[in-house]
Amino acid sequence: MLENNLTTVTEFFLLGFQVSKSLRISLFCFFLMIYCGTIFGNLLIITLVSTSQNLHTPMYFFISQLSVSDILVITDIVPKMLPFLLNNGGSITFINCITQFYFLSGLETFECLLLAVMSYDRYVAICNPLRYTAIMTSAYCVILTIISWVFGFSIVLFYIVTTANLNFCGPNVIDHVFCDIVPLLELSCSDTFNVHLEIYILSIPVVIIPSSIIVASYTNIVFTILRIPSSTGRQKTFSTCSSHLTVVSIFYWTIFSVYVVPTKGSTMSVSKILTLLYTVLTPLINPIIYSLRNKDIIKAVQDKIHKSAV
User: Fold this and answer.
1) What is the distance, to the nearest Å, from the Cα of residue 147 to the centroid of all Cα atoms in its chain?
2) How far apart, in whole angstroms, are the C-alpha atoms of residue 21 and residue 279?
3) Nearest CA to 59 among 134, 136, 150?
4) Rounded mean pLDDT of the chain?
5) H helix or E strand, kind and range, residue 228
């Protein structure tokens, strides 16, 4: 049925970065190093949370789930992008293009939901510390995570299926580094109103509600911290959520800069760089933020090094 809806276009040609060969080789090495560093950093977080007893808490469980998502996001993009850098572009079948876009959309939606869950976890820990262990039980954390995974990959199917059933009758050249919604809709010769409408409607449960939860949680957290009499106590309490707040700020800033802020007058190179910020650089930055700004993770790393040395 999908093939009947298509016309002559069965594959797309991704241009990637149209630059000199030497620069493309440099970019290849750069993104390969970022990919390896991201996999190592996030696997380190997952391993530490799984094996270190002092990290068996809801906050670190959610951090490990974020690391899983970051590994999947960058794996969805970089391995396919690297050959395009060396070959000055390359073709991708229609099915593979839609599949890549689906996994990216599902993973980014999951991260939106997970960041909201993590902010709620910090709210309970700071604003209701006496009830924290009773509310954030292991079973409850697992349920919240499963809901985020299932909901994230289910809700995006609405506009993914609609996009897959659009007609693409040429041209088939995508001036981008991976398959994304904006260049796909620009190439379609069908009416894309339904896709835009679905995206706007789905932005309510995917973006608006999670971001509202984050804002409400941190508003209450700030008021609670301000009521702490000592400056040392305020600083210590805020440090427990500063890493998460930094990750949330980076994630939403990059997402909004690509899909919400008008890009008229911006070159395609700027658009490519902005999309790479949240698909490639953010998964690398997240484990760095949680490692450098978290004493428990630093201690867990030191313990592992000490045990291996002994």
Assistant:
1) 17
2) 24
3) 136
4) 88
5) none
Instruction: Give residue-wise pLDDT tens across range 10-38.
Output: 899 998 888 888 999 999 999 999 999 99
Question: Which residue is listed with tokens 């977080």?
Answer: 45
Q: What is the Cα–Cα distance from 2 to 232, expressed in whole angstroms?
A: 61
**Would you state the structure tokens that stand for residue 284, as one six-digit string?**
């690398």
**How many whole angstroms separate alpha carbon 39 and alpha carbon 280?**
11
pLDDT at 110: 97
Give the CA distances from residue 8 to residues 12, 13, 21, 179, 248, in Å, rounded to whole numbers and listed in that order: 11, 14, 32, 19, 42
Shortest CA distance to 12 belongs to which of 101, 85, 97? Answer: 97
Q: What is the pTM of this model?
A: 0.91
For residue 262, cis peptide bond before it (omega within 30 degrees of 0): no
pLDDT digits (tens, 9 = 90+) for 255-267: 887 776 655 545 5
Exposure string (b/e) for 162-195, b if CB count within 10 Å is 16 or more?
bbbebebeeeeebbbbbbbbebbeebeebebeeb
Contact call for residues 146 and 113 (beta carbons, < 8 A): no
Among 8, 4, 2, CA closest to 187: 8
- Chain centroid offset of residue 149 CA: 13
Residue among 98, 80, 99 nearest 89 (CA): 80
How far is it, in rounded angstroms, from Cα 41 to Cα 262?
A: 34
